[in-house]
Specification:
- By secondary structure, this protein is an alpha/beta fold.
- It has one domain: Rossmann fold.
- Helix content is 36%, strand content 13%.
- The chain has 6 helices and 6 strands; from the N terminus they run βααβαβααβαββ.
- A 6-stranded mixed β-sheet has the order 3-2-4-1-5-6, sandwiched between helices.
- It is globular and about 40 Å long.
């Protein structure tokens, strides 16, 4: 599936109590905590002057509430895309995070009991990204850390973790062999 070469913004949802406890959330529908609401309000202020036409969001409460706060400040519509949900981690949900070992094993095809396979998750996220980029010329995607890792894999970017509510801007390469340009909303590379 070809991803449209269109610029977009991405933001990971605000903090939850499970983020603070460093446990896997996956599709467990955990709400924002007080700090997460504040992060979303601050992100809305950072983003309000950006050329964003449309906000798209995961349906999970932590992302949807973040999107609502931002969209209200910007006075922009929100579209929910179910395929932007975080990966279902099965038996890992609610367990302490062990990123390095677990992630590498999962990518290699060692799927935890009851979890979504990496291949299926990546296919779902690529479909959601294509859908989101088809909605408007300038979209803000509000989703999850795992979704962002999948987007980075789809765009052949280096994998980096992003903090809760740290908006980033993505510009497609001018030449197919060049990498995508990723900047914070202040424009710094």
């Amino acid at each position: 599936m070809t991803i449209p070469h269109l610029p977009f913004y991405f933001i990971r949802h605000g903090e939850t109590d499970w983020n603070r406890r460093h446990v896997y959330m996956g599709t467990t529908d955990i709400p924002l905590n007080q700090a997460g609401v504040g992060q979303a309000e601050l992100a809305a202020q950072w983003l309000k002057d950006q050329a964003i036409d449309h906000v798209v969001s995961s349906p999970l409460a932590r992302a949807h509430k973040t999107a609502e706060i931002i969209a209200a400040t910007m006075q922009k519509p929100i579209t929910i895309i179910d395929d932007l949900k975080e990966c279902h981690w099965g038996a890992k949900e609610g367990q302490p995070v062990d990123e390095r070992v677990f992630f590498e094993q999962w990518i290699a095809g060692d799927t935890p009991e009851g979890a979504e396979a990496a291949y299926d998750f990546d296919a779902r996220v690529r479909s959601a990204l294509k859908h989101a980029l088809g909605l408007s010329e300038s979209v803000l995607i509000v989703a999850h850390g795992g979704v962002y890792c999948s987007i980075q894999r789809a765009l052949s970017m280096s994998l980096v973790n992003i903090r809760n509510c740290a908006p980033v801007y993505h510009r497609p390469p001018e030449h197919p062999s060049h990498p995508w340009l990723v900047c914070d909303v202040g424009g710094e590379e």
